[in-house]
Amino acid sequence: MDILIQQIINGLVLGSMYALIALGYTMVYGIINLINFAHGEVMMVGALTSWTIIGLMQDSMPGTPGFVILFLALVIACVVAATLNFTIEKVAYRPLRNSPKLAPMLTAMGMSILLQTLAMIIWKPNYKSYPTLLPNTPFDIAGAVITPTQVMILVVTAFSLAVLMWLVNYTKLGRAMRATAENPRVAGLMGVKPDMVISATFIIGAVLAAIAGVMYASNYGTAQHAMGFLPGLKAFTAAVFGGIGNLGGAVVGAILLGLIESIGAGYIGALTGGVLGSHYSDIFAFIVLIIVLTLRPSGLLGERVADRA
Amino acid sequence: MKQQQKIIVFMLAAVGLLVLPLVLQGFGNAWVRIADMALLFVLLSLGLNIVVGYAGLLDLGYVAFFAIGAYMYGLMSSPHLTETFPALAAMFPNGMHTPLIVVVPLAAGLAGIFGVLLGAPTLRLRGDYLAIVTLGFGEIIRVFMNNLDHPVNITNGPKGINQIDSLHFFGLDLGKKVVVGGFEVASVSLYYYLFLALVVISVIISHRLELSRVGRAWMAIREDEIAAKAMGINTRNLKLLAFGMGATFGGVSGAMFASFQGFISPESFSLMESVMIVAMVVLGGVGHLPGVILGAVLLSALPEVLRYVAGPLQAMTGGRLDASILRQLLTALAMIIIMLMRPRGLWPSPEHGKSLQATKP
Fold first, then answer.
1. How many CB atoms lie within 10 A of CB A95?
2. Which segments of B183-316 are extended strands (E)?
3. Of the candidates A219, B1, B292, B332, which lies 20 to 30 Å from B323 by C-alpha distance?
4. What is the pLDDT of residue B289?
């Protein structure tokens, strides 16, 4: 039983990180119908930037409490990632706004490879150990353990989601974003500047991705130039799973995906008598995705007709 | 161009292609290998072009079919299976050397079946949903190839399969060089001719398909699926056919790849390869045969050629920029810049459908 609780905790932590990334995908998709393949790389840049900042701060001012360092690193990582994503949109996606659909998708893929390569040149390709800045003693919950880092991930995710929901539902910018997602042309006629809204979307997405990157690196204790790829892919799967373009759907999809993955990885060995091991955990996401989309072609909470895509 | 001029240009191109490996051979076999790989990628791109270009179904997991073909050939013509299963070793005392005439249709058929299997549940999906499902399918296949080394060792896991036979047919072994009238033709050049022949056959098939009833039906589906259905096109069967056809091309190229390399491992079939194949098709000009060929040659051969000039650069940057990083960097930049300059591809088709044109919101 305690294994189940442990896997649920792990699943929630994993799912909340996916949720942060998935929101960036789904917001961008909702507004400009583009799969931003470079989004996972933005997360990676966030994580590696924070790694550099932490290293610098630990050298220059020893004795600073861990959470202060982590917080500052997080803020700087968010700023860097936001600037990066803003620039990417401006350079690589904006000129192709009215081109055939495949063109911006291909520049997004190119951007993803480019960012990975640049990160490999800047940060070197080795795995970096990411320092644990929070206390190490785990809490005990009914036989399962949760580390302070994991608690922090859950709290930060919940907080970010609350801020995002407030931003989208109760501010002028949020209203403009929803209007642009609905119909960019009419939104433009109503005095919304679509370009500005799109830039804002990319910035918000990047901030969420950078937070996810820092959380991901502190949870697993490593960072590397290729770290953004798989979480990015899973997060996108989660966004499609929940119904792409739908913020609530992305969160639900991501949490469910995290739970499925960790519970599946915990039990698949026992269920199949050791024939299939936890190496297969990476494909649960895709198998579930194929099943869900076969039954509900527009995702769990997706309301749009699949044909629009 | 007048008909006569066309024929002359065509003849010149044919002669050029035939002589190319013999010239390259003089500079070293590595150059011929580059040409061989370029031809293989042309073959793959032509296959993907059927799915993406004609039927308009975005497939981001195309490399899975390539992998299936390669593993099929690898397993049927290497000592791996007989070493793992003593029962098989007893059946084939001389080792498994399945003849080409059996193994290539098998590889093509299996890949085709997988193509239909992937197509069947995704018939209702369109656009980006389809893209992500096919991408997931590619990853699933790769993970299985990585992990099917236990409890029963089928794919040998991440270590891959080696000692794969080279192609041999009609008493000709492509793994050994042939001497024709005192002139030596290296093994890689023999592969070049084989691949060239396959490319020519594929171009003819693709071209005939494009003009046929099936091809027109595919394009109708690409333009507007509902309208196509209303015109009496059986969209379900035709979409499955597109998936199956594309996958078959992938399977054949996979078998060729396995025999050419003599070694395969899951690493060769990553998502990155799928992205590269899609990039070749789209950069060249989706749905337009000359464009697709141009894209494939450009993206597969150019970075390899650059590898040879990367040496000085590597020394200049203190080893930080090695050849493979430089190659990746240039590929990424090429993808972005070409798309920004020519959103419809380098050599787009002169008449193009609605769905390939600008999207009107």
1. 16
2. 183-185
3. B292
4. 93
